[in-house]
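Box 4.2: Ligand-aware structure prediction
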Amino acid sequence: MIWNESSECMRPDEMRDLQNKRLRTTVERVYHNSTFYRSRMQEMGVSPMDIETIDDLVKLPFTVKTDLRDQYPFGLFSAPMSEIVRLHASSGTTGKPIVAGYTRKDLGTWSEVMARTFAAGGCSRNDIFQIAYGYGLFTGGLGAHYGAEMLGASVIPISAGNTEKQIQLMTDFGSTALCCTPSYALYLAEAIQEMGVRDKLKLRCGFFGAEPWTEEMRREIENKLKIKAFDIFGLTEIIGPGVAYDCEAQSGMHINEDHFLPEIINPQTLQPVAPGEIGELVFTTITKEGMPVIRYRTKDLTSLTYETCSCGRTSVRMHKIMGRSDDMLIIRGVNVFPSQIESVLLEFGEAAPHYHIFVDRANNTDTFEVHVEVRPENFSDDLSSMLNLRKRIEARIQSVVGIHAQVKLVEPRSIERSTGKAKRVTDNRKLY
Ligand code: DLL
């Protein structure tokens, strides 16, 4: 919940007034403190006086990842370096990193939105948080760390990796909440199963994000770890984790819209889509000081719902991320999202959610191969049963995605595990 000054739940009209006021302050700030935004706004003939309410957002310019790269390292900051107390960066796959700078107030905001995230999952000062996101330039570790501390919980800053030690401390310290990527949660779950120590654990929930994961993957983690798995969303450019969070209803992530204003646009026309339609998620930060961003195009694909959630929160919710417009593979002319493959695999009890997609080009035609791990209890030397499984997966991929993929079943544990964001695609086509 977000409270008003009388400590009552904020009404929608109060929220809108707050957003209008904060947007105006932010636009003033970037116009006067950032050469980049001032010249962008001047090019579009917009001045801060033209922005009165959030309906005026559409008059403002978009910001894209390459703008941040071009302004590397500090060109997008709207506060002097003497006020910047923390720097984070995200590596991405190509080019220079994206850098984010935080003032002391920004760090307070970040802790608050993360504390909200954990409280929405039913956590309190009585919980013991095992933070297994990477610490460092990546925002996962420190973002979750300060949020859990603000909540008053006990924090184990173990960082990612070192799986045996994770499980040992989880057992000995009685961790009740786990924070890591969903792929690492699954890896930990398998190791816990193998060591036969699940019954010794006090774990009851986890906050997983930083990479796309499906509802099927959520169920898999929940069943294996016997916990409730919450999705958390965020990106370095906006603040890090804490932009949006699942509540106990797990029916879309609540956006912290008193700090981050969402829009959904059609990535081709750049026009807003109708409510409920899928498109590219765009954010404007309305309280940040260090590096506010205006209409930042995330490339993440989702939809928004403004209906009140069954949990009682009135904040706008975003659907689980359905893919990225730039993660989208175009294979033989067909748009393919890795998340579609993951969903298909999880329909099969025999297949593990560990897979790798290989795309290449031979004789001017794209090749599309999916390596799929078979669960240990289903892996066998009986060629006909393996062949049958392969054929069934191929047929299902064909019906969901619309093109044929060559499926190769591989032995349990042969696909590389990740302790951070999983890399699931190798595209060897030389398309340029
Ligand atoms: O991944 C921040 C984060 C840390 C979020 C820990 C959640 C938990 P970046 O490294 O800048 O920041 O990557 C941001 O990761 O644009 C999405 O494509 C993807 N992403 C983040 N959270 C989710 C999620 C962090 N819950 C990029 N579901 C974003 C799907 C996600 N994709």
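In the box above, the bound molecule is DLL. The mean pLDDT is 94.
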